[in-house]
Amino acid sequence: MIQTMLQAYAKRVVAWRWAILLLSVLLVGGAVSQAGKVQFSSDYRDFFSADDPGLQAYESLRSAYSRDNTVLVAFAPKNKDVFTPATLGLIEQFTSDAWRLPYTRRVDSLSNFQYTRADGDDLTVKNLVSGAKDLNPEQLAAIKRIALAEPFLVDKLVSSTGAVSGVSISFLLPQLSDEETGKAVAALRAKLAEYRSAHPDIAIHATGDLLLDYAFEEQSQNDIMTLVPLMYLCIFVVMFCVTRRVAGILGTLLVLTFSVLAAVGIAGFAGIKFSAVSVSAPTVIMTVAVSSCIHVVLAVLNGMAQGQSKHAAIAGAMGATMPILFFVSATDVLGFLSMRLSSVPPIVDFGTIVAAGTAASFLFASTFLPALLAVLPLKVRPAEARRGANFGQLAVGLIKYRRLTLAAVSALALLGSYGLMQNRYEDNFVNYFSTSVPFRVDSDFIEGNLSGVHEILYSVPAKGAGGIAELEYQNALERFTAWMRAQPEVYSVASISDVVKRVNRSMHGDDPAYYRVPDDAKELAQYLLLFELSLPAGLELNDQIRVDRSATKMSVMMRNMPTASLLAFEQRSADWLQKNAPAYMATRGTGPSILFSRIGEVNVEGMMQGYVLQLLLISLAVAVFLRSFKFGVLSLIPNVLPSILAFGAWGFFVGQIGMSVSIVAVMTYGIIVDDTIHTIFKYVHARKQLRLGADEAVEYVYAQIGPSIFSTTLTLMAGFAVLAFSHFDLNKDLGLMSVMTIGIAATCDFLIMPALFSLTGRWGRDSKYAQHPPAVRAAETRETTLISET
To answer: What's the number of CA atoms in the CB half-sphere (13 Å) around residue 378?
Structure first.
């Protein structure tokens, strides 16, 4: 029944070829109309779902204090001394100019640091630096002494050596349109370019979450502009080497284009944003789609090489390949949809987009491609009919060493399992970008010379409204601040307790003995109020104190460290507060670094669930479709092993698994299982329909589909290798790991499957094909007859 339907379908594709071509173009046109709705994500918070507890905690903190996006600009003079009239004058001027940038809410630097001095019972608060270009050596020395003794400044706005100084700019975006980030970044970059040109003796670097947001969007667009054209070139070269036919090359390129446009259109219709992760979806879609096209084109060329007419060869090829193409496309779609179990929205979007593109590629490969081949001129030489003989002979040669092969593979599996356990999860959002990306270069410089780029934020609650002015709270907060500064992982700490201590010292004639929390609660409340009333507009404490004075914000800049260590530090700090401070002060740290660290653990759990789900469903589908539990189990071995070996090798040579590498097993399983399914289905056909012995069937299988497996593997590896040219390391690592997994999978299909077939499928006559080549030639004759009749 199914065979009859396939025969009828294949004939109609050829007969209705012009209508199919027109309908395909109309479908693509409809998709293109929706593609214009696609947007690019320019917010790193899009990596987290709206109901993520960590994101909610971070957004709650930002709402309580200020929803600023910050940028830290570092100035590094060649003489390694910022305390000179020229450099301080530059910082003073830039501080003034920064206030005039779009959406600027606050600017902090050495020049406008609010230095306190007492005049009797009055408190004087003024800028630390004023008229820098006219300062004399004594004044410069005094400024340097004050700055390098101030905890709020050291390793935050000035390095402990005085060689680098920073200007912190807080941007408050109205969030009325998606262009605000680009406008703010463009204005900042223009200003930095102006200063770099005017002051070539001072290196200027910039980092911060505003620039991080824009870097995600910028690299997404750059990848599309570079990777997609490179992918087209790669596919053209592969298809030329495989087919050497204009019709095959043109048809394949059009199928890829239609598939990508359909996926992008679906994304636009569904409101899915493209991010720095999902932007690689077009490249993956093209890579997967070209495999189906290669199988169709080579099947048509094989039929024509055996003497069939072009239309008969197309009909025969579609009738023979449609069930397998449908099955492997379904497994691909299942594999990509399994990524929806991830807790990372960009990974979910990536899986959804590629699944849609894969489904579209099956539709076009089974309709548009054969219809186009039926229209375009296509000629084949009869000599090409035996192009797969070498693959068949290789498979039979490997059968002789099947026990040795399986023993060696088992040993490698054990070694790979050990290497797999050496991996540890490690993610760093700064390291998502290549070292050639300016944002990464600037961030690395600032982290190594001025301050950390990993910030943990704490909203430390008091005992109700106004509670921050109580002695118990301030003393506990001061102890917590001191404990923080004593930790080796910490660069610097900004805490309101420093302000309290500084004002108390100023009100007692700058006596160092009074650099502590006041002993009297009334004094404490008065000092805080006096300091706040003395601050100029724009430099208020609302970024450190809640409006109702029920909590204060502590900012802790961390050194670069592994993800696990960062989370361990945050847990240690929460434990310290619980044991050493009043219960009402208990809190947890938050911030982008904590968010990205925690999301990895949850993502790995989701990916493991998706991987196991694929194993079960695909193996079950194979067993049901072929009515054989044995082949369902056999499909597992050559497809689980590549993941073990690839992750094992990664464990030995890299040892760190980030967000992108964690999705490779799920993403590639649906891809690498394709060749296994082709092999198993063809083997079953040879045994049941052609009545070949186990070894004869093995050589027949590899003689028939060996060239296709070889060609599709090269194409897949080349396609994912294109991702290695991305400047976004998530995509780069994804590409490299996928190349390794797919290469190992193809090797397993050639090495393991013949041995497994030979050991498990030897029943009835047990002929050695290497000694009886006429048997397969007879099989090929029967196969040709069946196709011709179709």
So the answer is: 29
* 389 plus 407 within the same structural domain: yes
pLDDT at 18: 92
| C-alpha dist (Å) from residue 200 to 76, 78, 96, 97 | 11, 9, 20, 19
* pLDDT, average across residues 337-356: 86
**Do both 287 and 260 map to the same domain?**
yes
Query: Percent of the chain having pLDDT more than 90?
Result: 29
| Domain match, 312 and 388 both | yes
Q: Looking at residue 2, what is its pLDDT?
A: 62
Beta strands 490-494; 551-558: pairing state: antiparallel
Average pLDDT, the chain: 83
Structural domain containing residue 196: 69-210+452-474+491-561
More confident residue, 588 or 304: 588
* φ and ψ at residue 74, rounded to 5 degrees: -105, 135
Q: pLDDT tens across 510-524, in order? A: 888 999 999 888 888
Same domain, 170 and 224: no
Does residue 270 lie within any of the structural domains? yes
* Amino acid 461: pLDDT: 95
Q: Which residues on neighbouring strands pair with residue 116, listed in sequence order?
A: 125
- The answer to whether residues 312 and 361 belong to one domain is yes
Neighbours of 747 (CB within 10 A): 16
Q: What is the tally of structural domains in the chain?
A: 2
Is 741 found in the same domain as 708?
yes
Q: Both tokens of residue 329?
A: 């496309």
What digits encode the pLDDT tens for the residues 438-449? 989 999 999 889
Can you tell me the distance from the alpha carbon of 661 to that of 347, in angstroms, rounded to the nearest whole number? 12
Question: Within a domain: residue 734?
Answer: yes
Report how far residue 137's alpha carbon sits from residue 762's, in angstroms, rounded to the nearest whole number. Answer: 94
Neighbours of 257 (CB within 10 A): 17
Degrees, nearest 5: CA angle 264-434-231: 40
**CB burial readout 137-158, b (16+ within 10 A) else e:** eeebeebbeebeebbbbbbbbb
Rounded Cα gap, residues 166 and 203, in angstroms? 12
Among 337-351, 500-514, 657-671, 728-742, name the one with the lowest average pLDDT. Answer: 657-671
